[in-house]
Amino acid sequence: MRKEEFQYLPQLVQQYLIYIEAIKGHSQLSVIEYASDLRTFFRYLAREKGLCEKDTPDEKIDLSPIDLKFIQSVNLTDAYRFLIYCKDIRKNNESTRARRVISIRRFYSYLSENLGLIEKNPMKALDTPKTKKSLPKYLTLEEAEKLLSVIDGKYKERDYAIITLFLNCGMRLSELVSINYNDIKDDGSLVITGKGNKERTIYLNKACVDAIVSYMKVRPNDKVKDRALFLSSRNQRISPKTVQHLVYTYLDKAGLGDRNLSVHKLRHTAATLMYQHGNVDLLLLKEILGHENLGTTEIYTHISDDAARKAIQSNPLSNEKPKW
Question: Kind and range of the H or E element at 37?
Fold first, then answer.
């Protein structure tokens, strides 16, 4: 869904999207996801409640008649039927359905608590489908070292600094590309803006500082107005897509291209290495990563448990049996 399509959404939905971007500080990508979920929800309801023919294609459904009275008429059963539709017809997985539930709940909460337009919020009791919790993929220490060792080429100093920051600091892709060189203080710290426009301080270790110093020696300066730390071949702020491409290229070169790894997995790697090898407190790790909830950070304790289990199973005595 594109942002220019918001004008075709119900008026109250448009108002809500402005609110979560301007006041709650959600990123544009996050706002678009909310918009897409609510559009799917109200398209379903438009068919079910007779605002259009049952066989009307999604893109032909007019959502402009959906007003406050229509929204007030929606009940909890309607929402659960929508989730069944998402599972059986749209083939949405658990995580997608869970996201749709959150979008619906927060929209109705906004109407009820912020605007006072709904006296009794019917979606307050809307449960989220259970999702399978899987351990995030990450590189071992040896694999991370191998990845760094294969970096070369015309932009090797820049690429090495980028991957070093990912592996050491655990920052997000959007956070890395937004860094300006003058953001870095003399003590090696910098303030970055994460999800929800929340700022946090990152402290660069020696590997990061050395990598950036080496890169700055070759970073183009002549006629470059952009203060971006990392520049593209066109001497403009490097794009997320370019960073993703270079990471995939080096993963392939390191023989790790078949692991379904990504830039975000380098963030998982940094967190895992800090937790397993640095004895980092979980609360401190939460602050370093910029997680809103401790529950998100706790996934790395499960990684540690899994590693411990595998270590015990690899013991050469693990298959020994009594001689009698």
Answer: helix 28-48
Candidates 43, 97, 99, 267; catalytic one: 267
User: Closest Cα to residue 157, out of 83, 70, 88, 215?
Assistant: 215
Q: What one-letter code names the amino acid at 94? A: E
pLDDT of residue 284: 65
Catalytic residue among 105, 158, 172, 265: 172
| Catalytic annotation present for 291 | yes
Query: In whole angstroms, what separates CA 6 from the centre of its chain?
Result: 22
Q: What is the pLDDT of residues 79-90, one digit of tens each?
A: 999 999 999 999
**242's tokens:** 């370019």
Q: Residue 233's CB: how many other CB atoms inside 10 A?
A: 11
Task: Write the pLDDT tens digit of every residue in 55-79.
Answer: 999 999 999 999 999 999 999 999 9
Using a 10 angstrom Cβ sphere, with 0-12 exposed, 13-18 middle and 19 or more buried, the burial of residue 250 is: buried
Higher pLDDT, 141 or 300: 141
